[in-house]
Amino acid sequence: MKLLVIDAQGGGIGRALVAAIRQELPEAQITAVGANSAASSAMLKAGAQRAATGENAVRVCCREADVILGPVGIVIADSLLGEITPAMALAVGQSRAKRILIPVNHCENVVVGVPDLSIGKLIESAVQEVRRLFAAAD
């Protein structure tokens, strides 16, 4: 199963996702794509096997992924302080991959009906979903 973690800004959510997945599922194949080099570097240091940066990397990697993880902003054009381009959001949205999105209420996007959980709890929930998908694939 090919996992793709996408993040922007400092890559903090992506870094936490990669580290948690690496700890729970060491066999997972994780590719990280950052909207900028700082995000890519943070995810690579957290344990992604490979990393890339930018719009074209998002577009290409979304075609190959089985599961895409990241903050909800990765599916909203111009989100994350403008780092997510319309082409990036489109690539994530049109991918055949299962999307696991972290509901972060920032950058003028508010997801209602979601409990106000810490980033740690949200990451934990995302990893549980990945673990469930891995179990279903076996």
Keywords summarizing the entry:
138 residues, alpha/beta
Describe this entry's structure for a reader.
The protein is α/β, with parallel strands linked by helices. About 45% of the residues lie in helices and about 20% in strands. It contains 6 helices and 5 strands. It has a 5-stranded parallel β-sheet, with helices on both faces. β1 (about 1-5), α1 (about 10-25) and β2 form a beta-alpha-beta unit. α1 (about 10-25) runs parallel beside α2 (about 35-45), α1 packs across α6 (about 120-135) and α3 runs parallel beside α5. The chain is globular and about 35 Å long.
Can you lay out the helices and strands and say which pair or pack?
Elements: E1 2-7, H1 12-24, E2 29-34, H2 37-46, E3 50-53, H3 55-64, E4 67-71, H4 79-82, H5 86-94, E5 98-102, H6 119-137
Parallel strand pairs: 1-2, 1-4, 2-3, 4-5
Helix pairs in contact: 1-2, 1-6, 3-5
